[in-house]
Amino acid sequence: NAGVTQTPKFQVLKTGQSMTLQCAQDMNHNSMYWYRQDPGMGLRLIYYSASEGTTDKGEVPNGYNVSRLNKREFSLRLESAAPSQTSVYFCASSVRGGRIRETQYFGPGTRLLVL
Amino acid sequence: AQSVTQPDIHITVSEGASLELRCNYSYGATPYLFWYVQSPGQGLQLLLKYFSGDTLVQGIKGFEAEFKRSQSSFNLRKPSVHWSDAAEYFCAVVSMEYGNKLVFGAGTILRVKS
Question: Looking at CA atoms only, how far is residue A10 from chain B in angstroms?
Answer without folding.
Answer: 11
